[in-house]
Amino acid sequence: MLDNLSINQRAAILSLVMLIGGLLIWEAAIPAQKTAENLTEYEILMGLGQERAGVPPPSDVLAKAWEELSNPFYDAGPNDKGIGIQIGYSIYRVLSGYILAAMVAIPLGFLIGMSQIAYKAFNPFIQVLRPISPLAWMPLALFVIQDSEASAIFVIFICSIWPMLINTAFGVAGVRQDWVNVARTHELGSFRTAFTVILPAAAPTIITGMRISIGIAWLVIVAAEMLVGGTGIGYYVWNEWNNLDLTSVIFSILMIGVVGMLLDTAFSVLQRAVAYAE
Amino acid sequence: MSKPFLSIERLTQTYPDGKGGTMTVFENASFGIEKGEFVCILGHSGCGKSTIMNILAGLAEPTSGVVKMDGLEVSGPSLDRGVVFQNYSLLPWLSALKNVTFGIKARHPDWSRDKVEAHARDFLSKVGLDGDVVNRKPSQLSGGMRQRVSIARAFANHPKLLLLDEPFGALDALTRGTIQEELLKIWSGTEQTVFMITHDIDEAILLADRILLMTNGPYARVAESVEITIPRPRKRTEIVEHPNYYAIRNHLVQFLGHRSKELAGQQTDADDLRPETVRIDHTQQDSAGHNPDTPPLRAVNH
């Protein structure tokens, strides 16, 4: 029967089997808590009748997800906002920092890629600054900027700039001389050469850098928001941990994964749009 | 003697040899090309053909010497000098049609989009590319088709001088033959001046009005200018029947086989080395100019 299905269909079936199997094992592994009626007197005396925090079974997480996702944008005060609002804040911070980084990294990458001198002059700074964990900038950013919101955006900026900068420079430097010669023999000026020849030629490499950057930015925002607090999905995870609401913690972990996947998918679509075969 | 349309004067190219000295590729090379002429240059690798081509295109600067076109000194690349590169140099993210319109838009920025596209389609159809093929990307085209697009792009711009850098070098023999004839067809309608590098003697005889022969490097020079005394229009299958064909061919083979080596590295004191004109014509016996180089070749004749 399976022979008639395409590879994709078979893979989908296998994925589904793994998902259901995993959830069943998870569900079965959670020990049932005894309800008060079934306790012995000794157990009641020992305080075991009280509800204990434990890893929730997947059915609870699903119920939580249903509840949250059916009303994602409610706002009932600083510590009780819908998941949609929290994710919205995180995406807003990520995109602000990311767009600022792109505005710096892509032109600068062009310069570095076009000029040997610029490349050699910038290289030591890039090599030293790139390996710094973005969160290490947080105290300095908080002190200098004096604003937690802007500091979070700065941390996103500083972590997403490097892959874009390096890939843009690499892509621009690697544009085939033949194509540049085509531009030269057609008397194109520097700007037209940059936009009609170098940019499309380097676009796949640049987009790859942007895709890596958005992935890193999404990783970093969760940690940054745990530190700065207030709003955002990172803060939400930490807040629910403080509430010992593990169901919400697991639910929000899944949401972080889903949003990250969507961001990555958007860039893979873009990547396919600018790809070319030589 | 009036100045030719394109005049290459005392061109010298030296490169550092990596040991502190310099290596002279060619020295004081001088020759001219008339308007509307189709000139091929033949020579072994390393004699500096491609360097001459790049200098003519304006993509490289000679160590000394000048190139004058229409009496004006050439400096930097220009739309007046179109280039067809050996590796086609099509922009892979653009369709065949867009690759041609890319050139036309650069040449005629004031043209409307429709006019540019009609002009591009016209030239693509001249090299046998019609219909849906023109919307394909270069990666979806065969090598021969890519080179056709490249030729269409160059001709569509009506450059004063068209430079062809071994345009058929990467193609198989059968495709090469077809495209050579297409090149002749598209060329014959125009008064296009063409300068072409090739390694293929038969190709040069088929296409050229005149073949320049280079000696081996270093200190290479353009030693001879051989006139192709076979009337046009020429067909690949027919020119082999012409009485001059094998005489010319043998002369070229002898040159590339022996004399390019013998003449190599001879530094003469003359500072303006014009190539010696060779005219081999058996259709009008004895009226042709006698050349001291030709007698041994006579023996090969019918």
Structure description:
The complex is a heterodimer of chains A (278) and B (302). Chain A has 11 helices and no strands. Chain A is an all-alpha fold and 278 residues long. Chain A has 2 domains: 52 residues, no CATH class; 219 residues, MetI-like fold, CATH 1.10.3720.10. In chain A, helix 10 packs antiparallel against helix 11. Chain A is globular, with a radius of gyration of 25 Å. The mean pLDDT of chain A is 91. Chain B is α/β, with parallel strands linked by helices and 302 residues long. In chain B, the strands form 2 sheets. A 7-stranded mixed beta sheet of chain B has the order 6-7-8-3-9-10-11, sandwiched between helices. In chain B, strands 2-1-4-5 form a 4-stranded antiparallel beta sheet, covered by helices on one side. In chain B, strand 9 and strand 10 form a beta hairpin. The radius of gyration of chain B is 20 Å and the shape is globular. Chains A and B meet through helix 8 and helix 9 of A and strand 6 and helix 2 of B.
- The low-confidence runs of chain B, each spanning 5 or more residues with pLDDT under 50, are 286-302
Cα-atom radius of gyration of chain A: 25 Å
- SSE run of chain B: EEEHEEEHHHEHEHEEHHEH
Principal-axes geometry of chain B comes out as globular
- CATH architecture title of the largest domain in chain A: Orthogonal Bundle
How does CATH name the architecture of the largest domain in chain B?
3-Layer(aba) Sandwich
* Contiguous uncertain segments of 5+ residues of chain A: none
Indicate the CATH topology of the largest domain in chain A: MetI-like fold
- Could you tell me the radius of gyration of chain B in angstroms? 20 Å
- Strand segment count of chain A: 0
Portion in strands of chain A = under 5%
Oligomer: heterodimer
**Whole-number count of domains of chain A:** 2
The end-to-end distance of chain A, rounded to whole angstroms, is 41 Å
- Helix count of chain B equals 9
